[in-house]
Every structure is written in structure tokens, then in C-alpha cells.
Amino acid sequence: MANIDRIANVQISLNTTAIKEQNFSDVLVLAAHTLGVNRIMIVTGGSDLLDMGVSEADPLYIAVRDAFKQTPGASQVYIGRRQVDSADVTVSRASQSTYTVTLSWRAADQSVQSVDATFNAGAADTTATIATGLVTAITGTAAPVDAVAVGADITLTARVDGTPFGMSVKGNLTVGQVESTETPSVALAACREESDDWYGLALASRDTADVLDAAEWAESNNKLFCASSFQAGIVDAAVNNDLATQCQQKQYFRTHVWYHGSAAAEALDMAIQSNRFTFYPGQETWANVRLAGITYDNLREDQAKAAFAKNANTFEQFRNFAITQGGKVAAGEWIDVIRFRDWLAEQIKINVVSQIINAGGKVPFTDDGIQIIANGVRAALLLGQKRNGIAPTEQDDAGNAIPGFLIQVPRSVNISANDKANRILRDLKFSARLAGAIHVAELQGSLTYQFQ
At a CB cut-off of 8 Å and minimum separation 6, what does 144 contact? Predict the structure, then answer.
């Protein structure tokens, strides 16, 4: 049979390549834990951690709990892991039941191995005998940890420092709070290498050195870091060595500091990010926000002004309601502007790359070809307008149209031969007017018996 291609040969190319976009709506909380060997895990509720034996007093649980309290709020939270070499498990109550410690680790081939160490307790067993029985069971596994029991407490230690191991429990067992000597910057770099699908950042730790280390990392890694602190110096104008002042002096554009007197027991940093990240970049402001389950601070006016002078933010009561105040990063820019800028830069990159790789044969170095690239920029700016990040076209007092953005497109004949030879397009520029947000209204009026 003759091939019909001799008459009609059809070739259809797929110019539909989709480019993965950076996420600007998910938050990661970094914490020391032994819940798994991976650097990143995702939870969809605080009960996920309780089911794995995490205590309600653990800063990690508090952070996740307060994120999921918000309405609107996050549907998921990323948990980043700081390396832990030792962890404790406590037999909280003796009963005739099964006690299980699940251990996980990476084998030499990098596969994740898992094993259950169980002890079936009898009616006569005490918390101490149960702990001893679990240690025997753990020692009998291939898990690369050493276990020691002292009374009702079991301590598990990695045989080789720096080797991760995971641990979860079932039965009347609780996992103690763990500590890490790994700096947040080292841990965050490892987390990002495993998964970069998050944008917001918070720490379970309230240690100042940890916060400053994370702030330094965030500044050069395109993440937005929210830090909550109970340091009284933040709201004291006479103090100049507090966390907010140090971040302000460093002029961090990607760190926003929040004073919160209950920061040791609550996670305002997770709550505010959970709420604000439900809005597209450009649609939100970080001031005048109501938060659920977060204790407000009764600050004097001079204390609030001291915090604002250091570009710190607060959560305060006004009559019968409480809202956030400030909404700035440490360098003084608005938090929403930083997020919108990051989103816009990503959107332009995605659009331009899509235009180039999905053009079919090529994007010619002609006026028409340059306009193809400009169209990608224009599409991003138009979406920015739709999201209320960029101002719409408005009119001045004389009725003249003031556009929300302008794009400067070079002509092909004016581009140097060298740039054309290297196939590099330069001098395509844009400027846009931010829509901004109204935080305060200052109104003037008068009362009269009749209008003149």
C-alpha cells in the first residue's frame, strides 16, 4: 500500500512548553526535629505532628498550629529540618499495651530504610521497664543509633555525628524537644537544594543569633523571612542593640521583624504569613490584619512608635478589635512591595523565556522579533495591574491620561552589531507605578449652619 505522506505530509510541532514558576504562597518553618531523614516535609494540619509524638509545647507544633488557625489561611506548611544528633523519648504512662518507636535512616545507596522497635507491655510493667524493653528492641534493629534508658527516659544518639535519623512514636510515648548545633543558614541551603517550592520563612527558634543568621541567608536567596521576638528592647526607644535595630542597621529588605510579647508560646510570624499568603502578590497589605488565636500586645503609644522607628511591626488592640500595625521590612520598604516585586520579576522571566522557546523556529532580531519579547513583558505588567499591584491608567487634574506602566522598546536598527552577533537583546526597559495601599485616612471637614 502506498504511503499517504507522498500526497500530504503533516508535521505538527508542540510549542506548548510550560515553565515551572516560583511559588510565592507557601511558607516554611525551620526547626530541629527527628520526624524524618529528608530536609523537607509537608503537613496539612497540626494533628499531623501530634500523631507523630510531637509535644503540644514544642515550638515546631506551635508554629504549625498557629498557621492553621487563620481564616483565610494556609492549606499546607513546609517543615525544614535542622540536623539533630540526639533525641529523647519518654514513656509517659505504663499500661498493658504496645509501645512502638519507628526509626528511619538512609542506607549507603541513599534509599530510606525504616524499622519498628516494639515492646508489648504487661500489666506489671512500669514506665522504667517499658523504657528498658524499648531500648533492647531498638538495639536489635539495624538502625544506626545507640539507645540508653534512664528511668522512663530513652536517649537515642546517632552513631556518626551529622548522620540524620528519623523517629516517630505510638503508644504512651512522647518525643522531647530537641536541639541542633547546625546553623539555620546551613540547614536552609540544604532544604532549598531538596525543594525550592516555598517562599515565606519562619524559625521555630527565637534565639537572636539564629534569627540574624537566617536573615542574612534570606537576603541573598530570594526568600521572605518573618521573625517574631519578645525582646522588650524592640519597643524601647532608648535601646539600640535589640533584634529590630540590628536588622534595620543591616538594611535587610527580605526580613520583617514583629514584636510579640507572647512569642515564646505563640507564632505570630507563622500566623501572619499564613493569612497574607492566601492573596496573590499585589493584592495584600500586611498592616491592619486580624489574626486568630494570637494574643495582642497592649502597648503604650511611645512603645509602638519606638517599634515603628526601628521598622518593626506590632499586633495591637484598638477598642474591641486587634490588628497588625506597620507592615514594613527592616530596611523600611513595605512587605507587600517586596513580595510583589519578586513575583513580577519571576513572571517576566517566565513570559520572556516562554516566548523564546515556544516561538517555533526562532525569534528574529528584528523589530517584530523584539516586539515578541516586549509582549511577554507587557503581559506580566497587565497581570500585575489586574492583581492591584500596579496602578491602572488614571487621569490628572487636567484630564491627561497617566498610564500605569511604560515600556521602552529599542528599534533593531539602533542595536549594535556586536549585540546582534552575540544574539543578546538589551535596552528593553519598563517602569510601572505601584498601586500601593491605604493604611491610614486623615480627613478634614467642617460644620456650618449653611453653605456659602
Answer: 105, 158, 159, 160, 163, 165
Per residue in 177-205, is it b (16+ CB within 10 Å) or e — as a string?
bbebeebbbebbebbbeebeebbbbbbbb
pTM, 2 dp: 0.91
| DSSP H or E run through 91 | strand 86-91
Residues 315, 286 contacting (CB under 8 angstroms): no
At 242 the pLDDT is 98
CA distance 323 to 67: 16
pLDDT digits (tens, 9 = 90+) for 186-233: 999 999 999 999 999 999 999 999 999 999 999 999 999 999 999 999
Contacts of 70 (CB under 8 A, 6+ apart): 271, 274, 275, 291, 292
Binned at pLDDT 50, 70 and 90, residue 6 comes out as: low
- Cβ atoms of 391 and 404 closer than 8 Å: yes
Distances from the Cα of 406 to the Cα of 36, 281, 341, 381, angstroms: 50, 20, 16, 9
Contact 214, 225 (CB under 8 A): yes
CA-closest candidate to residue 48, choices 18, 33, 39: 33
pLDDT digits (tens, 9 = 90+) for 292-325: 999 999 999 999 999 999 999 999 999 999 999 9
CB atoms within 10 A of CB 312: 28
Nearest 5°: CA angle at 95, between 93 and 99?
Answer: 80
Q: Are 103 and 146 contacting, i.e. CB atoms less than 8 angstroms apart?
A: no
Would the pLDDT of 18 be above 90? no
- Can you tell me the distance from the alpha carbon of 401 to that of 390, in angstroms, rounded to the nearest whole number? 15
The answer to whether the beta carbons of residues 394 and 403 sit under 8 Å apart is no
Give residue 9's pLDDT.
62
Residue 334 reports pLDDT greater than 90: yes
Q: Which three cell numbers stand for residue 285?
A: 497589605
**CA 60 to CA 409: how far, in whole Å?**
50
